[in-house]
TrEMBL record:
<keyword id="KW-0805">Transcription regulation</keyword>
<dbReference type="Pfam" id="PF00440">
    <property type="entry name" value="TetR_N"/>
</dbReference>
<dbReference type="InterPro" id="IPR039538">
    <property type="entry name" value="BetI_C"/>
</dbReference>
<dbReference type="InterPro" id="IPR009057">
    <property type="entry name" value="Homeodomain-like_sf"/>
</dbReference>
<keyword id="KW-0238">DNA-binding</keyword>
<feature type="domain" description="HTH tetR-type">
    <location>
        <begin position="8"/>
        <end position="68"/>
    </location>
</feature>
<dbReference type="GO" id="GO:0000976">
    <property type="term" value="F:transcription cis-regulatory region binding"/>
</dbReference>
<keyword id="KW-0678">Repressor</keyword>
<dbReference type="InterPro" id="IPR036271">
    <property type="entry name" value="Tet_transcr_reg_TetR-rel_C_sf"/>
</dbReference>
<dbReference type="Pfam" id="PF13977">
    <property type="entry name" value="TetR_C_6"/>
</dbReference>
<protein>
    <recommendedName>
        <fullName>HTH tetR-type domain-containing protein</fullName>
    </recommendedName>
</protein>
<dbReference type="InterPro" id="IPR001647">
    <property type="entry name" value="HTH_TetR"/>
</dbReference>
<dbReference type="GO" id="GO:0003700">
    <property type="term" value="F:DNA-binding transcription factor activity"/>
</dbReference>
<dbReference type="InterPro" id="IPR050109">
    <property type="entry name" value="HTH-type_TetR-like_transc_reg"/>
</dbReference>
<feature type="DNA-binding region" description="H-T-H motif">
    <location>
        <begin position="31"/>
        <end position="50"/>
    </location>
</feature>
<keyword id="KW-0804">Transcription</keyword>
């Protein structure tokens, strides 16, 4: 009897192999043959699930963003400003796998990829992240922790941008842990000070 293959499980296996191949060879140099080898599949089998590398690239980006979104939203709603700072700290202290993924994304985006839908996925992720931070800031405003004049929408998106820049900087330049910890502390101090000062609410 032929073995029944779970399509979703096979797609996840191929996406994981794509990540491995991109990290090993670089996005530009990776061929579908490399991905098939990493997945332990015949090249023809690979094409039953994904038509080309661009389609695989988009699937990988979506999978990574879905995982990161799940991690972000797993955080407990903050009751104090320090609770919120802990949430931000979690976003800017990536593990080794996250650093590899960040370098991969940097290469994909920097190469001016023609992958359809890629920029839309990236924009949607950072929009979600900005909204998540803004939602938590509004909750702190409503609880009297932050000034009612605080622009939660602007601060939320700004913090998402700061987190993105810091994570990319570490991934690309392989900063040592001690220096990065000092940078994180400096950024969090600036975020804390900015939220304490506040501003006129528009969002």
């Amino acid at each position: 009897m032929p073995k029944i293959v779970d399509r979703e499980e096979m797609q996840e296996r191929i996406i994981a192999a794509t990540m491995s191949a991109f990290v090993k060879y670089g996005h530009a140099a990776t061929k579908m043959t490399d991905i098939a080898t990493e997945a332990g599949l015949a090249k023809g089998t690979l094409y039953l699930y994904f038509q080309n590398k661009e389609e695989l690239t988009l699937a990988l980006v979506r999978a990574c963003f879905a995982l990161w979104e799940e991690q972000v939203k797993r955080a407990e709603p903050p009751e104090t400003l320090e609770d919120f700072i802990v949430i931000v700290r979690g976003a800017i202290t990536p593990g080794q796998t996250d650093r590899q993924a960040t370098r991969m994304f940097f290469e994909i985006m920097g190469a001016g990829t023609n992958t359809p839908g890629l920029m839309e996925e990236v924009a949607a992720f950072y929009k979600m992240l900005g909204r998540f931070y803004a939602q938590n800031l509004r909750a702190l405003k409503n609880n009297g922790v932050l000034s009612p004049r605080l622009n939660a929408r602007a601060h939320g998106r700004a913090i998402a941008s700061i987190a993105d820049g810091l994570v990319i900087h570490r991934a690309m330049f392989e900063l040592d842990d001690a220096l990065y910890d000092e940078m994180v502390a400096a950024v969090l101090a600036q975020v804390r000070a900015g939220l304490t000062v506040g501003g006129v609410e528009h969002g």
